[in-house]
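Why run this: before we spend reagent on co-expression, it is cheaper to look at a predicted model of the complex and decide which construct boundaries make sense. The entries below are exactly what would go into the expression plan.
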Amino acid sequence: MRYSYFESPIVMTTVRLVAPFSLTYGIFVTLHGAESPGGGFQGGVVVAATVIMIAFAFGARPAVEWVDERVVVGVFAGGVLAFGAVALGTVPLGGAILQVDVLPIKTKYGIEVIEVFIGAIVAGVVTSLFFLLTEGGDQE
Amino acid sequence: MTLALELALVVFVVATAVATALLRDIVASIAVFAAFSLGISVIWVILQAPDVALTEAAVGAGVMSVLLLVTVAKTGRLSDEGALLSVNPRALTAVGLLLLVLLSTVPALPDVGGPDAPALQKTVDGEATPYGYYVEEAYEETGVKNSVTAVLVYYRGFDTFGEATVVFSAVVGVLVALGGSRRWGEE
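The model came back. Tokens follow.
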């Protein structure tokens, strides 16, 4: 049974209204993990949920053509590489692995930079899971 | 007021959990499961765990339901003969007895957030507990007001890096299994 799409004006209008706010909220939560609840993981999931919500309302087919697989894979792979780079980058500066406070910026900003990488990883991974399940692979 | 809200939420969560297990139609089951996650996330808010509540609402109620629905749409659903699954009486008895045993331990637990709760002791025998240390020192050492974030990224950054690579490895596995020879979005 193929994934079938049913066009619903109610769902489409609701998603069109909600999506900008939830996307903004996801980015806000990612960037403000140091001051308020949340962080990279929660923010990344909310961003990915927004993408999935749009794909759910307007059909996975157009969404999948709009979001290039290479970009999404690049986002989460880049997130892991950047996290790893920060993790090892503290060693030549005289700290232990991931000892953020030896970085030349305030510790708080070091933590927030890592939160952004975590957000990129989670958003990319969850978006990938959705698109792989709906449209991925060799379908007959 | 809070007690009434908590009781209503517990009833709601238990009812949706039972309905998730019993409903025969798997799409209805997924919808009820999303409601369950939403109820649990409100409970997290009441228990003052907003970080967990955010995750539960976004992952449990949002992303998970969609992934389950997509999977059902791809694999098919049970034919609808009756609304509920039949329950094995012996299994029900065993689960009920286990539930009674577990519930009998609840009165012995300290109040959530109460002064006697072991998780909230700042020192034990004069030594700082992890909780006490993070609450006292996290802001001084990192400048981060949300101590959950401080623990996750600063004090336990290596674990978080491990989690990130686990998630990464998992999706690479899915990519290999479901990705096939063409990219998504390609005809």
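Residues 9-135 of chain A form one domain. The two ends of chain A are 11 Å apart (CA to CA). Bring this page to Monday's planning discussion.
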